[in-house]
Amino acid sequence: MADSIESFVTKLQAEGVEAGKQQAQTIRADAQQEADRLVAEAKQAARKIVEEAEQQARDTQERAQTDLRLAARDTVLQLRETLGRALRAVLVAGTDPSLRDPEFLKGLITNVVMQYAQADREGQVSIHVNVGDDVQTQLADWCRQQLAPEAQEAGANVDLRGTLREAGFEYEVEGANVEVTLPSVVDVLSDLVSPRLREMVEKAVAAPSDEQPQGNP
């Protein structure tokens, strides 16, 4: 009987130890599984953070490059506009005195009148010339005594008027009106100079980017 009780106790102890071992193994396995899961989630979260940081860095760099390109474009446009205004100011300063000079206008008007007269020798062409009121006063005697007789002989009638508000003159022949005024002359000269000016600006802007940095020997 004592052996049976002792054997029973021994069996219970053995079963308890085994159950404890199994429980411990189960706990360790669960803990390991949970630890692996947490590590995997941590790695995934870390990768996501790195990817987001890299994407944010790329976005920031792209925005910076875009901002720089826009700033460079605006700077070039402002430079062109400033140079264009300066160019027009120079052209106006150089052209205005000539277009207000009666002697200079005499030569231009004479050339215009004679070219039309020679081009239409079969008929009598009428040319209306309009200048500023003050210039008309200075050219009236010259027109009546010199230009008109020469034009009449060449086949043209000249009518000098003084209602123009601009420096220079305009003339009308057979319904066609042509201006040789300060704005029109400056526009023509600006068109001739502007392409070259734009080319110079573009070369000046592009020059720094064309320079390649030199490495250390």
From the alpha carbons, calculate the radius of gyration and give it in angstroms. Answer: 48 Å
Low-confidence spans: pLDDT under 50, at least 5 residues? 209-217
Widest sheet: strand order? 2-1-3-4
Characterize the largest beta sheet: strand count, sense, and whether it forms a barrel.
4 strands, mixed
Annotated CATH topology of the domain at 95-191:
Hypothetical Protein Ychn, Chain: A
Residue fraction in strands: 5-15%
At CATH level 2, the architecture of the domain at 95-191 is 3-Layer(aba) Sandwich
Given the structure, what is the number of helices?
A: 4
User: So what's the overall shape?
Assistant: rod-shaped
Give the fraction of residues assigned to helices: over 70%
The N- to C-terminal Cα distance equals 100 Å
Structural class: alpha+beta
The CATH class of the domain at 95-191 is identified as Alpha Beta
Mean pLDDT: 80
Tally of strands? 4
Order of helices and strands: HHEHEEEH
Descriptive report:
By secondary structure, this protein is α+β, with helices and mostly antiparallel strands. It has a domain of 97 residues: Hypothetical Protein Ychn, Chain: A, CATH 3.40.1260. It has a four-stranded mixed β-sheet. Strand 1, helix 3 and strand 2 form a beta-alpha-beta unit. The C terminus is likely disordered.
